[in-house]
Each structure stands twice: as C-alpha cells, then as structure tokens.
Amino acid sequence: xxxxxxxxxxxxxxxxxxxxxxxxxxxxxxxxxxxxxxxxxxxxxxxxxxxxxxxxxxxxxxxxxxxxxxxxxxxxxxxxxxxxxxxxxxxxxxxxxxxxxxxxxxxxxxxxxxxxxxxxxxxxxxxxxxxxxxxxxxxxxxxxxxxxxxxxxxxxxxxxxxxxxxxxxxxxxxxxxxxxxxxxxxxxxxxxxxxxxxxxxxxxxxxxxxxxxxxxxxxxxxxxxxxxxxxxxxxxxxxxxxxxxxxxxxxxxxxxxxxxxxxxxxxxxxxxxxxxxxxxxxxxxxxxxxxxxxxxxxxxxxxxxxxxxxxxxxxxxxxxxxxxxxxxxxxxxxxxxxxxxxxxxx
Length: 346
Prior knowledge:
Peroxisomal Thiolase, Chain A, domain 1; 13 strands; 11 helices; alpha+beta; 9-stranded mixed beta sheet; about 350 residues
C-alpha cells in the first residue's frame, strides 16, 4: 500500500504584519472593546494580525474580503515556499494545490494567486476546503492524502491561511468578545506525497476519523454578516469536547491537539488524551501562548513544533513525537476531525 508522507511542514505569522506582543500590548489593543480581563486569562501572550484592530472593527464585509485578497496570498506564499525548500522540491514539481481557509473568499483566489507568483505549472490541480473552521486543516490533510493515494507520483501542497482578525467586530455580545480574545492570523503549509522526496518525511498518514457531537450544532457557529463573519462560542464547548474526546480517542491514544483555547486543552487533559506537563499538552499550550488560535492551520503549528523537536532528538521518522497518534481538531457541528499518523519507514 502507498504511504502518504508529510514531507515538510512550515508555518508563518508574518514579520511584516501587525504584531500584538505581550500582555501589555494586548491590553492596549483590547481596551477598545473593554476585554482586558479576558485577555489576561486567555493563556495568549502574543498574536499576529494583518491590520490594527481599530482599522478593522467598522469595516463592511466587502472591505474585509478585499483586505483578505491583499494580505492572504503573500502570507500563504511565504509558508508554501519554506515548505517546498525543506521538502527539497520546487514549485514546478507540485501537481496539486489545496487551499484551506474560512476567513476570506474570492474567485479566483489565493490558490491561483500563489500558483502564478510561485511559478507552478498551468496544469496544477486546484482544490479549496472552505468555511470548515478550526478542523479544516485536518480535513485538508485527509484530502491531500487521498490525492496522493490516487496518484503515486502526486506532490500535493497544502496551505492553510487564515486572517481571523479581519472579522473582529464591535459587538458587546460575550461570545463575540471570546472570539476576539482567542483568534489571530497565520499560515501553515505541508507537502504530502507517496513519492520519495529529498526532504525527510515527518509522518505517514493513515485513516481519518470524524464525529459530530449530537445536540451541539448551536454550540459553535460561523456566519456571514454585513460586518464580517460572526462566531458564536457557547460556554458548553469544553465540556462537550471533553466527553467526545474521552469516547472518540480513548484513554490510551496519543493525540496531537489543536489548541482551540486554554479551556479546550484543559478539557482534553481531563479526558486523559493529553497529559499536563508533557509535550502532548504543553506544545499546544506554547503554540496558543505564542500565536493564539489561527483556526485551520493551528494544529499544523503544533505538529511542526513536535517534528522540530524530533529532529533535535536525532530521529527523522516521527518516533520521538509519540507516533502513532491522532492529530485532532474541533469546529462547528460540533465536529471532531482526526487523522491517524504513524512513523515513516525512512
């Protein structure tokens, strides 16, 4: 059977973008909405955004989509270029390009923009995973694995790019304020292929798993409004995730976790699928602390950091990041989406 390998992961938050650095700066930005106390308890110390909050709050949806069109492609391209360099291949080698985003739409969009600017072939096959929220990155990995399995010579480039800050709105509803506290901008890219590529393979992709938690369809929503996209986050989300993960993953499963928020990580610790003080919980906490929740690409930040630690430990087949494992993320539905990862054979 073909082994779908994640050959390289790269992520970007963009050094040319507005950075909210440290709790003091977050206080200054969040004071616009009076959410200082929530920021202090979020577990987030810095985030990146393409524009200052004050510039975004009163934009129309059309203006926000124009900003996405301007800022998303260069951020996505930087992540993609780094992934290709580390995979040891060029843009001309890519056969399939998957873009994952839930924060901006335009056609033609990010995929065509970076395919042209990076010099990909005109025959590259395009796909977009849209509006799936935080589990879109796992869905994108599964889609990439399917393409690689269908064509053993395929070289699939997956790019998650999210500009969550473009949807910050001056709404005093507590659920909106929670979203403003948590979310940030970033991009992550991965190369997936069954072919032997020059770069060191990080992990082998196995079967996917998914579950919609009954009775939770209103717990998390992502809706288009005239003033950006509106998110609702019910306070019951962590408890629902805890119960679902206890049943979904089981007590003996190793989980590479999407850090949706400090409450989500804590819920997964209570469920026993990640362990406090160990990399399974502390790497997601570190990503959340340093970047915030960047929606679909965040779990790839976690996986990339674990892979980086593996290289420092002197192995290249994923064995020291706790593989086999489930890479798992959560989103509207409530949906738990996961993918099995195993050590590679090379």
